[in-house]
Fold this sequence. Notes:
Blueprint lengths: L12 E2 L2 E2 H10 L5 E6 L3 H15 L2 E6 L5 H8 L7 E5 L3 E4 L3 H8 L5 E7 L8 E4 L5 E5 L11 E10 H8 L11 H11 L4 E5 L3 E4 L3 H9 L1 H5 L7 E4 L24 H10 L3 E7 L10 H16 L7 E5 L26 H9 L8 E4 L2 H10 L2 E5 L10 E3 L2 H9 L3
Parallel strand pairs: 3-4, 7-11, 13-14, 13-16, 14-15, 16-17, 17-18
Antiparallel strand pairs: 1-2, 5-10, 6-12, 7-10, 8-9
Helix pairs in contact: 3-6
Amino acid sequence: MSNFSPLPKSLVEVKGISILEHQIDFFSKRGVDRVLLLLGHGASEIKERTKYLSNKYGVHISEIEESTPLGTGGSLMNALDSLDENFFVAHGDLIINTRIDKLEDMIENQNFDVAIMYQPTDHPEDSDLIMINEKSELKKFITKPHPNFMGRCLGNVGIYAFQKNTLKKLFSNYSDNQVILDLDRQLLPDLIAMGVIIAAVRNLGFVKDCGTPERLKYVEKNFIHIERTKFKKPAIFIDRDGTINRLAGFISSPDQIILEDDAPFVISEFNRLEFRVIVITNQPVIARGEVSHEELDEIHGTIERSLISFGARIDDFFYCPHHPVSGFENELKDLKIVCDCRKPETGLIEAALKIYPTQKNSSWVIGDSWRDIELARRVGIRSIHITSEDNPFMADFSAQSLTEALNIVKSFL
Length: 413
């Protein structure tokens, strides 16, 4: 590893092939036929490779070299005249094996000007984080350090799709084309300030930066897994209160979160077995005016951080904010409705299935309420009822603990 630092990051090798070549290979297989390299450190070394890569992958490769460092956003602005009307951007230190079609779809068919890819991060303390709203739109970047941030542990992946005209409007606000600008910390927040709605697309595959020796070692170790990445996976749709964390009435504060003793181990095992772990929860506290969406993010962020400390990961949270009963002092009238997402209605799982390609016949619903069991019946997924009593709700299986539920699931593998 002694030669790691002097090399341009994109020329660091993973399994004997440079990161740059891995990226060219990835994008060429997905219909990209033009690549523009925005070069700074090590530009001459990279240029020596481009003719070979262009011939090997049938992709036209051109370069723009900075005379002075402009930052990730400044280099993009400097290259504006050379960009197509719609284009992808990827940081140069990423190993990528994921779906980019949804990014492209957001730009071309769903009327977004910008789309970014995100994923839960297992090292939130040293990552820049993002905030998204319930419509999966980017709200804010949270740059490190952020010792007091309590929200979700969501990291920006480093892959984007842009409409050129949107950047033209933004760049007209800058005094010249040679401004030093960071893509994540300045350019995207400036777009949000302009009123641009930025779509946030969940990464369904493997994207990992190799920007440090430790992360490079991780990618080398997991390369076989990367090659075998499957986007369609089984899922554990799991209830929150009384299943992952202990019941404490209507939870309205992160301080009330106490994990069930075996939750970290069980969830880490589901991660290891390559199940997606997706929380499905009714949260009428929002309709009752007791918790905002942002405060609920803090509660879920607390659960995530607690699990991360044990090496466990939640893939996503889907929650119903509605409540059909009125009469609460601070209630939100527009959320006091009969909806199609409050369990046992199927809207939450249907929303999850639209985002996550799922092997339903290998998936499970796990929860402690009749609502969870009835939800499973309605969507045609096997159920496990967490209960210390007999199985009164006629789930497919009952278990006295999450550990017992894990063993039931493992018996079907």
